[in-house]
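Email to the structure team, subject: Oculocutaneous albinism II model.

Hi all, the expression group asked for a predicted structure before they design truncation constructs. Nothing fancy, just the tokens so they can compare against earlier work. One-line instruction: predict Oculocutaneous albinism II, return tokens.
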Amino acid sequence: IGGASTAIGDPPNVIIVSKQELKKMGVDFAAFTGHMFVGICLVLLVSVPFLRLLYWNKKLYNKEPSEIVELKHEIHVWRLTAQRINPASREETAVKCLLMQKVFTLELLLRKKLKTFHRQISQEDKNWETNIQELQKKHRITDRMLLIKCLTVLGFVILMFFLNSFVPGIHLDLGWIAMLGAIWLLVLANIHDFEMILSRVEWATLLFFAALFILMEALAHLHLIEYIGEQTALLIKVVPEDQRLTVAIILVLWVSALAS
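Reply from the structure team: attached below.
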């Protein structure tokens, strides 16, 4: 639902609204969001009651003790920190080895705890309401001023997304608007350790999406997507007219799912 409601929720949506040909036809951020928002509301009207009925009177709890969950999280944090160190010097290599040794020690401790753990849900885990209250106390917002700055920048960026559709004088793409918003937030947050921020960026994910965009553009130049659309349209036309709408909806849904 979140990925389909706006033009920035999913990479294919960004591809659609970034096409200059489609922009000339009136398909921009506001038009995309306006059309999809109606469908999302209809989906919510169906999915929310269904999920409430499906999980009616079901308690949420962890199937593992809290100490094991916290230990797994600690191992993940230490391993992620070690992976982000580029061993370009002897000192950095030594630090990375120490971190990996810490990970190895914690993994041994985790194995010992899992061996002694009887797969039964403790009374502490059953009391999920108490667990949620403890999580809210433990992970509460500590910097409200930073939260206000983030919400301000986020609201401004979303406003610029919509203004980009109605004000022709704004010659900025969605990517540049988001980039300027990120730079503005860094300035407002007064962050000096910029390398720490860059280390938290999921570069592998960004490269994946960049490669995906390149692949989609290459397939468009090869007219493969156009060919798939034409064959789907021909297949829909074969169906009798009274059943054509149903078959068209099913085919478009499954072809889009398989092609994406």
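The CA atoms of residues 146 and 189 lie 7 Å apart. The longest helix spans residues 90-116. Ping us if the truncation boundaries need rechecking.
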